[in-house]
Amino acid sequence: MKDLIIVGAGGHGREVLEWVMDINEEKPTWNVLGFIDDDLNKLDDKKSNYKIIGKIVDWTIEKNQCFALGIASPVIKEKVTQLLMDRGAEFASVIHPTARIAESATYGIGFVAYPNSGIGPDAYVGDFVTLLSSKIGHDAWVGDYTTISSHCGVNGEVKLGKRVFLGSHVAIVPNKRIGDDVYVGLGSVVINDVEKGVKVFGNPARRAR
Question: Which positions fall inside the PglD N-terminal domain (predicted)?
Answer without folding.
Answer: 3-82
